[in-house]
Amino acid sequence: MTVMQATAVNPEQTEETPTNADVCTAPPRRRPRPDGEDSYTISEVVAFTGLTAHTLRWYERIGLMAHVDRSHTGQRRYTNRDLDWLDLVGKLRLTGMPVADMVRYAELVRQGESTYAERHELLEATRRDVLERIAELRDTLAVLDLKIGFYADAGRRKTDKTDKTGKIGKTERNR
Fold first, then answer.
1. What share of the chain is helix, strand, coil (3-state, %, to 5)?
2. Which of 67, 94, 98, 101 has the maximum number of C-beta atoms within 10 A of its C-beta?
3. Residues 42, 76: contact at Cβ < 8 Å?
4. CA–CA separation, 44 and 67 (whole Å)
5. How many CB atoms lie under 10 A from the CB of residue 32?
6. Where are the beta strands (DSSP E) in 52-161?
7. pLDDT band at 161 (very low <50, low <70, confident <90, very high)
């Protein structure tokens, strides 16, 4: 599924849930609590996401996260939607997208459907960068495979060419 495709209607969706949500990953993983009963403390979100409380507060401060609701005592209360957003942010971080671009993307999402074209462009540019990195990593992996193969062969040759005195031939010593 591409980023801009509409999702199929989920039987668990309520009438308030849009069916053309901005889907950027596979279906979100199941959350510990159903929608409507999804009020998580910052420590619970830390446990679910592996992010630190400091990072979560920073994301909110820089605008990477929309305003997080607060309890009557002022404690942050996250929802399943917030957890889904944090999953997406984690994926964007893995792409190497700069934080400024992630914040820009978050701003565009908050502005609504009129920003689809700009979001599409931003994600396409990130996708191109990821594909370039994948190609570089494949090249690097090929070099590693060659070196690993060389040393595996060299180890076998060393065993085969070691004479009775235990001395190694000249070609093996120079590699």
1. 55, 0, 40
2. 101
3. yes
4. 18
5. 12
6. none
7. low
pLDDT above 50 for 150: yes
If we measure between CA atoms, which residue out of 173, 142, 144 comes closest to residue 157? Answer: 173
CA separation for the pair 97, 88 (Å, rounded): 12
Position 121, amino acid: E
Q: And the tokens for 41?
A: 């403390």
The count of residues in the chain is 175
CA–CA separation, 95 vs 90, rounded Å? Answer: 9
**99, pLDDT greater than 80:** yes
The token pair that represents 128 in the structure block:
């191109």
Token pair in block for residue 56: 């979560």
Residue among 127, 124, 123, 146 nearest 135 (CA): 127
Residue 166: the pLDDT is: 57
